[in-house]
Amino acid sequence: MRRRKIQRDRSQYPLRPVTEQMKGQSHDLKTNNLTPKKGEATVRTSPQCPKTDTRNHGRLDTIDYLCILSIFIMHTGSSRIVLSQTGGPLYQQIVNQLKAKIAVGEWVAGEEIPSIRQLAADLSVSVITVKRAYLELEHAGLIVTQHGKGSFVAADVASGPEIFEQELVAHLEEAARLGTTMGMSQREIVSRLRQALDETLDETRDETEGAHVVPKSSKEPV
Amino acid sequence: MNDLCIRMEGVSKRYPHFLLDSICLELREGEVLGFIGANGAGKSTTIRILMGLVRQDTGSVQVLGHPMPAEQTAAKLDIGFVSEDLRLYGAPTLAWHMKFVASMYPRWDQAYADKLLQRFDLKPQQKIKGLSHGQRVKAALLLALARQPRLLILDEPTTGLDPVARREVLGELMSVLTDEGRTIFFSSHNTLEVEQISDHIAFIDRGRLIAHDEKESLLERWRRVRLVVPPSTALPLLPGIVEVAGTERLPVLTTSQFDPDVVSLCQNRGVTVQAVDSMTLEEIFVANVQSRRELQPA
Questions:
Q1: Three-state SS for B245?
Q2: Which of A133, B16, B112, B281 has minimal Cβ neighbours within 10 Å of its Cβ?
Q3: ipTM for the complex?
Q4: What single-letter DSSP state applies at residue A23?
């Protein structure tokens, strides 16, 4: 039995996963609430990082530089995925967030992505969970895994709009299938879709009017 | 890679009021097995047999290729063991313990130990008797991890830890696994963390192994199905039902062999499927234990 050492240097993954207890903070495709912008993620992942003092008139002091440096290190050393305890199955959360990364172009075609074991360690989730997420992404044609070499974003990966398009088609088909098994007529299914559309529009309107709307958690019944 | 790290075959041990009944368990290298059981279910007995601390009446046990308990000395060089009742010396400091353990295990990694001190928020100059329960657990984990053992056997490693410490410990356990040659066997009451970090899951109840499966397929097979049954319609016979709850018109079925075809099967009998809920590991464990206890009362 030979021991294989993959990674000895533990300083490579300084970022521990952040679990959000708050509702509505899951970043999945369905709510169109994608991976947070760099600034937002920083505030959340490094609470010791103070906000820039306005009295400084925008000048950065040493601590700010240190913060920026640490952001840089975290950005290069980790996958920056945030899992929520209330966000549904872990593998599904990983699938959704990696899809979003590819869709918005954070990960580009041909780019190497973290190995299964590396991502499992970063997120403190089991290897088998990440493996399952990667398999699903492979089946969707978004990534390729070459044995012994690692995993990469597929060379011919669809552009962002196409990924969302595929997602939409899958959801529509699922809705049609569910509606049919529940014995609904075509007219009923269409009217339910219209209803869902109205609700979404209402929510957006409320948001633009400044009303505080808590987005639905993915676990709540719709 | 993927050699068997732990292999138990037909292992039994009889005590006056307890029987550990023909346990068969396997764990491959590089994987994490979460071992779940109620109090007194046989978790600690199983772990003691694995460690060679208790001799089984019948059956064979191999750990890292060594038959136990015969070759326990050789096996223990490569096993890191932390259990709730593991005691450190009270008067000496943590630093003294670190030196002591380092003197016995050649693979001790001092730089890693120093990093763990920081991560677990421990002070090496503190005497063990002045530590809280949680700090003692973290100290024991540090001593086990810094030896870089190929197999970690942990008996409830996170019991009594605060949420922050628990996260640090789980994170540290998972970074151990970036090395494919290392394996973890751990027992816990905390099903949430078992669900998070385990590849395989074993349930033990009343001395018997009642489930031993890949985590993802276990979570995939168990579902709670909410039905609406029209008056004078019989409840369809579905596969793998372990529990029927709710009312006659609105039954809630728990199944251990869910299949998406169930929905159309019900539809054909005039029964509406209102919802199909996935279950947490805790719910699966409780449903599994309860259904078996009902079938076989003690």
A1: strand
A2: B16
A3: 0.74
A4: T
